[in-house]
Write a sequence for this structure.
């Protein structure tokens, strides 16, 4: 187990960074994704499916492709660089904020899609009922649509979190491998394998297997239980 | 007064409906499915936006320039399926539309619970109610939002016969206890005969006729009198009860009826007489098992089937009383040389006490 001695702090740091990235990404996606999912579910504009498609692209695009364009966008010549210059930095690439932006885009379909599906499943009727009971659209959303879609919110949050924890390609492209800033779990595993630190690699990889199993089991159970209610 | 006119085009279906109705009692919107009656109701609620005009009791809810959204219209809407909020208890469903922080709430809540028999259900989840219970909660929920107009879209059509019979008395109590105008969409003439005061006949997106129920039922120009189960609803006042025979007498305009009743009825009631239960005689049939023989005058007649005539009668010697329909064969019509203007005796074989 000698290979683990120097890796202890390193692993802890990677885990903390990963959890911070995944939590922040999930919160941002819930805040932005909820109105977006609502609009996708209720709008009758023909081009809404174009937006939905663009949003779903990370599901099929190689992460390296997404990472490549993100690298350009976050870099000194892109809008990300312009944004970074506001606080005196040169680029958003290879930084934690850059990772968050990349993760939000990369995990968006995993959060928005379940919430949209849940909104779709509610149908028009409960909101019509609420309107005939004098509920404003705002009140109807919070007292009827949101509670009825709670399984979708939970599934979206869990999937978004888990997917962010597991991302690798995008992180590698835009984040590099800077300990404490951009070195997240999946990159750390890659690193340990490259440097033949099998013990540390086993620890993290095994942990991820257990984590993934729990995530999928949890979402299945939530959908089952709430679907019944 | 409630005045409305709606025009819309939904695919191949064209809606062009206009009518007025008094702001009291039950107005039934009646017609075959697909005739646009539900669309009209949704337009009144503001759930569907068609071109047109809608004014309820002096307030304009929609005209060329304005459209008041559904949540700002003081309506109650009872859908065909109860559509209770599945995540709220019966109590919370009932209170969802009740005005906040109103000292009158507790009293009204108790009243609605009592009227609709909901006391035992309050803490249950909607998923654990029967179809009839659910619909009663939906009606209570609509009432507690303090509507000025109650809109009901075939509230009984998703229920089986037994459950219907369980709900109908509640609707009648509603009608009798509350001075609340109700629009009631239905394609079941039985419900209309029982509940409605006013009738709007619709067909293919248009209003064929609108007026008091009894007047339209006996209008020879309308298709109702040709229906196999054509009937008239008679508003009656209970006069006396004979417990020995289980019958009660009722006064209607221009005559008296004797009808079977389980207990002594009181006050204003409603009777129904089918056209096929009424036959005609030119002289008073002195020895007959038929309880109700009333002098009447033939006002009009239509041939309503092969060799079948349906006559519109006015009760009383002068024919000025309530209208009655009589269905006779063309053969006996000609044998007795019956014709409009003639005085006859209406022999009524069966009278039903609807409420």
């Amino acid at each position: 187990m000698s290979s683990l001695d120097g890796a202890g702090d390193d692993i802890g740091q990677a885990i903390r960074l990963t959890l911070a990235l995944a939590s922040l990404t999930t919160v941002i996606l819930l805040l932005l994704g909820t109105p977006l999912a609502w609009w996708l579910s209720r709008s009758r504009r023909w081009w809404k499916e174009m937006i939905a498609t663009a949003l779903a692209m990370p599901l099929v695009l190689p992460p390296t492709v997404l990472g490549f364009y993100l690298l350009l966008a976050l870099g000194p010549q892109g809008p990300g660089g312009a944004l970074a210059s506001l606080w005196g930095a040169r680029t958003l690439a290879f930084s934690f904020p850059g990772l968050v932006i990349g993760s939000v885009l990369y995990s968006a379909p995993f959060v928005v899609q379940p919430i949209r599906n849940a909104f779709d499943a509610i149908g028009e009727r409960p909101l019509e009922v609420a309107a005939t009971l004098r509920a404003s659209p705002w009140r109807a959303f919070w007292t009827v649509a949101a509670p009825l879609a709670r399984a979708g919110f939970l599934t979206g949050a869990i999937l978004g979190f888990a997917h962010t924890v597991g991302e690798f390609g995008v992180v590698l492209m835009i984040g590099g491998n800077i300990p404490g800033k951009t070195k997240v779990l999946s990159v750390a595993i890659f690193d340990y394998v490259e440097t033949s630190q099998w013990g540390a690699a086993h620890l993290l990889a095994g942990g991820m297997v257990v984590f993934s199993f729990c995530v999928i089991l949890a979402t299945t159970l939530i959908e089952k239980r709430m679907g019944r209610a | 007064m409630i005045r409305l006119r709606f025009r819309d085009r939904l695919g191949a279906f064209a809606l062009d409906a206009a009518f007025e109705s008094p702001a009291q009692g039950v107005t039934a919107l009646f017609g075959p499915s697909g005739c646009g009656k539900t669309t009209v109701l949704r337009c009144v609620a503001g759930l569907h936006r068609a071109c047109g005009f809608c004014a309820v009791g002096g307030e304009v809810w929609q005209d060329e320039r304005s459209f008041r959204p559904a949540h700002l219209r003081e309506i109650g809407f009872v859908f065909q399926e109860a559509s209770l909020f599945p995540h709220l208890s019966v109590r919370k469903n009932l209170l969802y539309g009740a005005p906040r922080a109103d000292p009158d709430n507790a009293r009204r809540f108790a009243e609605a619970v009592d009227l609709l028999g909901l006391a035992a259900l309050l803490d249950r989840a909607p998923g654990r109610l029967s179809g009839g219970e659910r619909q009663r909660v939906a009606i209570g929920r609509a009432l507690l939002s303090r509507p000025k107009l109650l809109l009901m879209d075939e509230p009984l059509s998703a229920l089986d016969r037994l459950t219907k019979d369980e709900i109908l008395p509640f609707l009648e109590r509603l009608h009798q206890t509350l001075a609340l105008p109700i629009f009631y969409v239905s394609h079941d003439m039985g419900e209309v005969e029982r509940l409605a005061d006013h009738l709007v006949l619709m067909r293919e997106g248009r209003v064929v006729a609108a007026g008091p129920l009894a007047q339209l039922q006996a209008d020879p120009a309308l298709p109702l009198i040709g229906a196999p189960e054509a009937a008239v609803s008679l508003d009656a006042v209970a006069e006396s009860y004979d417990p020995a025979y289980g019958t009660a007498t009722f006064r209607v305009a221009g005559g008296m009826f004797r009808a079977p009743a389980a207990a002594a009825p009181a006050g204003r009631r409603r009777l129904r007489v089918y056209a096929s239960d009424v036959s005609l005689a030119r002289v008073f049939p002195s020895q007959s098992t038929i309880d109700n023989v009333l002098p009447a005058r033939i006002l009009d007649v239509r041939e309503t089937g092969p060799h079948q005539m349906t006559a519109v009668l006015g009760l009383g010697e002068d024919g000025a009383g309530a209208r009655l329909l009589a269905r006779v064969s063309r053969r006996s019509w000609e044998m007795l040389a019956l014709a409009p203007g003639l005085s006859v005796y209406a022999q009524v074989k069966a009278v039903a006490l609807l409420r």
